[in-house]
Structures are given as structure tokens and as C-alpha cells.
Amino acid sequence: MNIVIVMPTYNEAENIGKMISALGEQFAKFPEDRFTLLVVEGNSPDGTADVVRKSAETIPYVHLLMEEKKAGIGAAYFYGFKYAMEKLDADYVVEMDADFQHNPNDLPKLIDAIHEGYDYVIGSRFTKGGSIPKDWALYRKFLSFGGSLFSKIVLNMFNVNDFTTGFKASRVRGFVDKIDFSTVSSKSFAYKIDLLYKMFKLGARIKEVPIEFGLRDRGSSKIEKNTFMDSLLTVLKLRYESNKSFFKFCIVGFTGLFVDIILSNLFRLFIPNPSIAASSAAMIAMMVTFILNNLWSFSENTIKETKALVKMFLLYVLGSIVPIIFRFIFVGYLTSAINASFLIYNVALFVSILFGLIWNYTFYSRIIWKKKSPKDASTSK
Ligand SMILES: Nc1nc2c(ncn2[C@@H]2O[C@H](COP(=O)(O)OP(=O)(O)O)[C@@H](O)[C@H]2O)c(=O)[nH]1
Ligand SMILES: [Mg+2]
């Protein structure tokens, strides 16, 4: 396996020499693999490049890639990835920092997982056995952990615990070579989440291995600290972009819910039977949502032809009848089993509506406004 460790540096003259030898010790543990340490140097004024250049004269695995000027950590990685793919023929690229916050002793865990055939290996601080520095202030621990938890829920990626770690290995073929770096949203810290989500979307087999995230050995941090909001916004943006129709469907759903609750209670005033009052309100709310969904939520697949429109509307009614039947039975059951008070009636209504939302989205997106095949979808953009 041809593994390239991509390591951006800016003013790491005090660390890089030690890092080069520490990595050499780890590389030696895997004689079957070929390793390159590709240092992507941001033209540091402290002479980092000179240290690397000098090592490269005698140590074959050291390779120096000079940037014209410091352009941020994300840009440095993308430059390094491209070089590793085009010039070094890498099978895997590993992201790693030069300041010993990533412990070279953890590298073998990543390499082992590569050998197990994983496409994306994440050095995780929040998996069993992983850690963040004990000396970190509580708020920093909280932001780091909370940010990952938030990402996990919003992005629906439950097999990942650490979304902002910078110690990772990625398979090149079919993955890194498929990513268009110009579309990675953030040049700063949040690029990590973006890249991670892109790998996930490409269908990477992911493994997390525990790492001990340390304190910087020497020198100082170059990364601005206002990255937390940047990361949160990136997560929301990624989620929204990957599933716009779901967000819109939810908004349409809430609009429908609003119409539904008002009508249900209005009808209740003059329709004595609660089942009939509730289910006829649902019918009208359904028509409103059909129109909005067709024109807006699923606008990529809007049905325009009259014939198809009629056919799909009938199907829509048929599909949407399921939650109405559910509601008919459930509201009837709850109001007769407990009582027909305002509270019980609305509780029954709420449960029925929740069921309806889940059922409907699945039915609409898979049947009514089914995505065209990828070929059609790309031409229709
Ligand atoms: N080439 C390059 N490297 C950078 C840049 N910013 C940070 N680095 C390197 O990226 C790694 C992580 O940066 P660091 O300052 O330790 O970030 P922190 O750990 O979040 O404080 C280190 O190896 C830095 O030397 C940059 O703009 N260009
Ligand atoms: Mg650091």
C-alpha cells in the first residue's frame, strides 16, 4: 500500500525534526507498505522549510511541498492531496498535524484499519479509549464534544463520534479522487466536517479508532478560535443541501398541520362525531400540502402534465388515506377509551399527525415524486 502522510506546517521548526524521526519509527513497523511524509509548507518565516529540506537529503520518505504563501490549513491539505494523488500515486492519504497533538504512536491504529479494508479511518477523540487533553477548560471540552454530538444528530451519521478530528486516513481511488475541492465549503476549520460528509456520501466504509489528542508540544496555534459557529453553520448547510426536499416537506408539513388543527377544532364545533371532524379536516389539509409539495418541496420533480397530475393525485390520496384511517381509528379509540375532552382529542390528533408525517414523506419521496435516475437528474440540473 502506498500511504502518504500529508502534514501542513506553519512555523513548526521546533517540532518538525522530531516529528520526522518519530514517524520513521512507526513506518518501520509496516515493511510491506510504502510511506511518504509530504510536508506542505506555508512558507514559514521560522525556517521550517530548511529543516525539512535538510532531512529530505538523507531520509528518503521525507518530501517537501512549498506553498507560495500561507493560505489556511484546508487549502494546504487540498494542495497536498492533489500532489499525493498526481505525483506520488497514493493509495491512501493521511491527515496529520505537525505539533504532536496527534501522537505518532496512534498512527499504527489507522494503518491497521487501512489493512482491514476501510475506506475512511477516523482518529477519534470521543470513542472508547480516545481522549482530549485533561487540561482543557470545561467550555472547550463541552464545545468540542457538543459540536460533534450536534453534527451526529443533524447529519444522521451515528457511526461517527468525532466530526472535527484532524487525524484521518482516506482511500484515494473512488473517494478522494472523486471530491471536487473547489466545492468544499470552508477554507478554515469546518472544511473537516465538509470533507467527512462528502466521504460518507460517497459511501465510504468508515472506522473510528481511538486517539489521544494531546497538547501542542512547542510553538503556537495558528487557527483562529471562532471556528465553533463556522462548524455549526457548515453542518446545517450540508444537511440542507443534501436534502432540501425534506426541509421543505417539513415546512409544508407544518403549514398542513396548522391548517389541520384549526379546521379540526372548527369542524368540531358543528360536527358532533369527533372521528369525522378530525378526518375531514385532514382531507383538506392534504390537498393544500399536495399543491405545495408539487410546486415547492419536490420542485425538482414537479408533475406538470395533466394526466400524470391526476394519476399522481389519486395515488397521493390513496397513500395519504393510510394516516387518515389511522387517525379515524386512533382518535375514535382514545376519545372513547378515556374521554372526549379537548386535551385527549388533541393528544390523539398529535400522535396521528406524527404518524402521518413519517408515512407521507416516505410515500411521497419514494413513490409520488420519485427521484429520477442519476443520469436524468444530472441532465435536468
Ligand atoms: N501550510 C499551512 N499549515 C498550517 C496553516 N495553519 C496551520 N497549519 C498547520 O496545521 C496544523 C494544525 O494547526 P494548529 O495551529 O496546530 O491548529 P490547532 O491545533 O487547532 O491549534 C499544524 O501542523 C500547523 O503548523 C496554514 O495556513 N498553512
Ligand atoms: Mg495543533
Automatic annotation (TrEMBL):
Residues 5-143 form the Glycosyltransferase 2-like domain. Its main location: membrane. Keywords: Glycosyltransferase, Membrane, Transferase, Transmembrane, Transmembrane helix. It is a multi-pass membrane protein. GO terms for molecular function: dolichyl-phosphate beta-D-mannosyltransferase activity. Signal peptide: none annotated. GO terms for cellular component: membrane. InterPro entries: DPM1-like, Glyco_trans_2-like, GtrA_DPMS_TM, Nucleotide-diphossugar_trans. The chain crosses the membrane at residues 246-270, 276-296, 308-330, 342-363. It is found in: Membrane. The keyword NADP does not apply. GO terms for biological process: glycolipid biosynthetic process; polysaccharide biosynthetic process. SUPFAM superfamilies: Nucleotide-diphospho-sugar transferases. Residues 248-369 form the GtrA/DPMS transmembrane domain. Belongs to the glycosyltransferase 2 family. This is Dolichyl-phosphate beta-D-mannosyltransferase. It comes from candidate division WWE3 bacterium RIFOXYC1_FULL_39_7.
